[in-house]
Write a structure and sequence with these properties.
By secondary structure, this protein is mainly alpha-helical. The protein is built from 15 helices and two strands. About 70% of the residues lie in helices and about 0% in strands. Helix 8 packs antiparallel against helix 10 and helix 14 packs antiparallel against helix 15. The radius of gyration is 19 Å and the shape is globular. The protein starts with 10 loop residues before the first helix and ends in a 5-residue tail after the last helix. The structure holds geranylgeranyl diphosphate (GRG). Geranylgeranyl diphosphate binds next to helix 4, helix 8 and helix 10.
């Protein structure tokens, strides 16, 4: 039986590819934030603070690289790349609020409600979410805009991002309102954890990939392969994120670390330990890479990203 290739990753080429995505997307995001005088200065400034902060731009990268894998172009998928980053930025702003994760530091900067105030941060998130859909609707082909909006709205809604976040909050001891069937699920903490993260973080990754594939007019075989990639990628990313929270440095990660343990949160390291978490993340990254076989060289960036995601330090 052939052995699977080890996950050896050339960090510099992944980082270079991600910086190209940033160079493409960031000016577009800045342009989208050139709002009229009807937008109050403080709100517009909070939106710039949150959206243009130095994140990794993983979701735009997934849009652009999946469209390339399916034979499309960055230019034709650019609104989708912008919109997924807007939804992501909004979710981070709201997640950092005192009512949710209550964080002071994000992307190496004060969180939005710390830099401005709570009401401004709530409105900033709301406005970024609306801007995401407005941006999708700016695509030259209205039928593309419609299909994109359906995919992104689902990923941002109660069955995905918001639902995963709600269950994650409910699972914390300070939130008493556990779902009625929680005790049945408790016997399978890992299954519960995966269900939360599939929705809270995974669905936006899946949507990013799907938006890129739609832009390229991908066929069913390619879309299914990308969907397998996205599911493995999303879980690998989350496990790596939990490991970074347990072991990473605040300076490189750009947010407070060690928080999950402080809050007694259910995480992959807390359920299965660091060692098994690492093995699981690597095996998922391997699965993600294998699912890209049908794309040949056009899947290179996606494959590199899946490898890097479990090895990164931020
Ligand atoms: C408020 C509806 C709502 C949802 C919040 C995104 C989210 C759901 C919570 C964020 C909490 C968190 C740290 C989750 C772990 C996974 C995650 C989304 C990490 C941040 O994503 P990166 O690493 O961030 O892509 P950058 O800053 O690089 O863009």
């Amino acid at each position: 039986m052939a052995t699977q290739p080890a996950l050896v990753c050339d960090f510099s080429s992944v980082l270079l590819s991600l910086s190209r995505v940033r160079e493409f997307v960031d000016p577009l995001l800045a342009q989208a934030l050139e709002l009229s005088n009807d937008a109050p200065d403080r709100l517009a400034e909070a939106m710039r603070h949150s959206l243009l902060a130095p994140g990794k731009r993983l979701r735009p990268a997934l849009v652009l690289w999946s469209t390339v894998a399916c034979g499309g172009s960055w230019e034709f998928a650019k609104e989708a790349a912008m919109a997924v980053e807007m939804i992501h930025a909004y979710s981070l702003v709201h997640d950092d609020l005192p009512a949710m994760d209550d964080d002071d530091l994000r992307r190496g900067r004060p969180t939005c409600h710390r830099q401005f105030d709570e009401a401004t941060a709530i409105l900033c998130g709301d406005a970024l979410q609306a801007l995401a859909f407005e941006t999708l609707c700016q695509h030259a082909d209205p039928s593309m805009a419609g299909r994109w909006c359906a995919v992104l709205a689902r990923a941002a809604g109660a069955e995905a991002l918001c639902g995963g976040q709600a269950d994650d909050l409910a699972a914390e001891s300070k939130h008493a309102a556990l779902p009625v069937n929680m005790s049945a699920i408790e016997s399978d903490q890992l299954g519960w954890l995966e269900k939360i993260h599939r929705r809270k973080t995974g669905e936006l990754f899946c949507a990013s990939i799907e938006l890129g594939a739609i832009a390229a007019g991908a066929d069913t075989q390619h879309r299914e392969a990308l969907s397998t990639y996205a599911r493995s990628f999303g879980l690998a990313f989350q496990i790596a994120d939990d490991i970074l929270d347990a072991q990473g440095s605040e300076v490189t990660v750009g947010k407070r670390v060690g928080k999950d343990a402080d809050r007694g949160k259910l995480t992959f390291p807390s359920v299965i330990g660091i060692e098994k978490s690492l093995i699981r993340a690597e095996s998922l990254a391997q699965q993600a890479v294998l699912s890209l076989e049908c794309f040949g060289d056009r899947g290179t960036e996606l494959a590199m990203l899946a490898r890097w995601i479990v090895e990164r330090d931020h």
